[in-house]
Amino acid sequence: MMFRMIMRRLGIGVVTLWVVSLLMFAGTEILPGDVAEIMLGQEATPESLAALRGKLGLDKPAALRYLEWLGDMATFDLGLSLAGHSGTGGGGATIEVLIGARLQNTLLLSSIVAAISVPLSVTLGLLAAMFPTSLYDRTVTFTTLCLVAVPEFFIATMLVLILAVQLQWLPSIATMTDFESVWDMLRSLSLPILTLCFVLLAQMSRMTRAAVLNVMSSPYIEMAILKGVPRRRIILRHALFNAIGPIVNIIALNLAYLVSGVVIVEVIFAFPGLAKLMVDGVQVRDMPLVQACGMIFCATYVVLILISDIASIVSNPRLRHPK
Amino acid sequence: MALLEVDDLHIEARSEQGEVLPIVKGVSFEVQRGEVMALIGESGSGKTTIALSSLGYTKPGLEFAGGEVRLDGRDVITMPSLERRDMRGRKVAYLAQSAAATFNPALTIGEQVTESAVLHGILNQEEANRRAEELYRTLELPDPDRLGRRYPHQVSGGQLQRLMAAMALCGKPDLLVLDEPTTALDVTTQIEVLKAFKRVIKEEGSAAIYVTHDLSVVAQIADHIVVLYAGEVQEMGTADDVISRPTHDYTRRLMAAVRPPPAAGQGDAASEEHLRDSPALETRKVNAGYGRKLDGSVAMKVLFDIDVSIERGQVVGVIGESGCGKSTLARVMAGLTPAFAGDVLLDGSRLAASVPERERDELRKVQFVFQMADTALNPKQRIDEIIGRPIEFYLGLKGEAKRKRVLDLLDMVELPYEFAGRYPEELSGGQKQRVNLARALAADPEVLLCDEVTSALDTIVGANVIQLLRSLKDRTGVSFVFISHDLSTVASFADEIVVLYAGRVVEKGPVDEVLSPPFHPYTRLLISSVPELRVGWMEEMLATSTAQAGIDRVVQITEVGCPYYDRCPLAVPGTCNEHTAPERRIAERHFIECHREIEELVRFSHN
To answer: Which residue(s) pair with B368 in the sheet?
Structure first.
């Protein structure tokens, strides 16, 4: 039964990706103007436009281009950038090269943020659930609620204002070139890391607290108290086991947000990441690049949600041990 | 010195506004070693609160306000919290009402049973496992050597209830606190569990506090009884004294609320006035189940060829153990679980199988009253919204007309008008069940499907709800399908009885005929399993051939033969397990499905 459910989820994941690819392609088709117009700019004549479109393959019917594109995507052939990256001029760089470095940067930033925020927020949430209505719990609740309510661009701007401009402790721009040491790199990335951690920490610790508290009000927890089980064991063994499903879900959603939703943070700190690449791509109507970035974001999302689904299936004893 | 001395105990509830409400008002009693003390009273009498105080525990919102609870001479209320934690599970162990909710779904049974004993250092893990296995054997649980590795959802409700006893006993506590451990069980399971508890308490020599509202159960297990009302002791003494010679008014009232064992002649005479040609609701050869497949059949069949008819203005009681398909039958009638074969007829015309296919007026005529008013009523809606919604939806009334109808309905279920503005959580269990009924009546139905509507209520409140149902029936002429595992209630309220076993109708007919010989062997088991209010009843009952064959067995659904074959004292190997039982007509409307001849059933029913 469990195996069947997991296979089903995998199937649904593939279908989701396919639907996303349709939407993605349709979305970029609807955008006004195409890369030929942008490339030729002011000097465009109808003849030169047609010629360039023919060269770039833009004159083929949309359905055909979609199928070609889908086939390439499925074989990880991301194709050529039509415009090349801003700054390199001209078309022809492969998208793989463009994305490769950027994806690495984004992944690096995300994994550092995840490595800090996930254990920290789960611990904070657990502790808050262990001592509900205590001063500690109220402090955590107050702080996290404040942070949840504030948009990340505001947090980022405030951090830059205080730590970079006023105190001049940290750089306000997160570049990714020529680090002499790991420490250097961390210093350069510290502001985006801090901003993202604040946002994630607030959400994840709130939800962990809620998930554990929800379980803490069940009769089997009261039973554990009446059996003389120490509080620590009640939380870690009796409550946490039942809260794993929802907690993993929240973590997965937040991590997915990290990879795809960091546009604002990357732009503010001029961080050379994937999201910023995509934004640039939209500006120059470089559709293959935008589509490839979009697919990577969606695939990450789908994979993370899949992982959380599978985790909650596996953590459910009813599914793990059918009657 | 007594094992437990409760001395002038006071417990209070504090509301959010800071109001103080006394819950327990100066209760004193003692429990001697090796003795079973019953605390009885209706809900709100403080019996559970008092029982929990012996573990130094109060439910959230309650607090100790005075007095002492001494265990071995030490006051558990004032002892340091570390010492109290060590005492819990080691000296006093607790068994809750619902084992299904009390077992942690994520941990194995074995871990939970042995946890307390190991944590307190009474036994090491290996000894505890061995002890648990011994207890499984004593409690007559199946497959004792592998049971510990299973998860709670993999065993039945009655088994979980007994496993909770194993969990409590594993650390060899001096005192057991049992909180209504059999209330939620059906009659046959109740006997199994009671029998196991009684045996294990005797063998272990532990003392016990047994909390219940059911005097007949108390009579089977208690040595002493404390009768509680509104947080005060009304009467106490030995079980025999209190039951045979009650001195206090309240005890007598409790005893009066104990319904006599089901027998013929308790119900009302069936009135003929509402009878018409076609029954109000009828099922013909209905087959249903769960896990629908593409070809329309089901993965798990639950109902087999059910023929039931509910005459206008009559009450049809549906009885049977859990797992026999009672609720599924009601859900099929309501269209919630569509039948995959057979028909449901309303006023003689065929109804569509599922809710979405039925006309609004057809939906209006068949209304469902769910068992748990707590979960059936939306906690965020006021009572007038809950009752008003079906009035607007089905009858199209709005504004003043709707408001007037809401008040009429409140009047009908005997609730004061000011309840219209309240929320469900402000109401007691019995009041919520009345609102639940009013909601169903708001649609002006012809048939009410009542699924265990009194099972969650205690004796006196339940009796009042039945009284209300009876007057509703007389005033509105509505027909009832009344599902209950409580035979006494069915016997006093129903006009006809349908006995379901493993998805088949094994007997049906007018109440008086079903409850007098000849019986189907299963009907006989059900009737004889209802506890009687006298000491020693259980031992006599367990000695009968019906109990020997039928108790401690589970309901098994079979496609071939008579499903009752493996529990039947009259089973004929080769016939009963291979062929479907024929329907025998005993009288005009009385049928029994059995391979045995009527004469054989008559002889069996009389010995």
So the answer is: B449
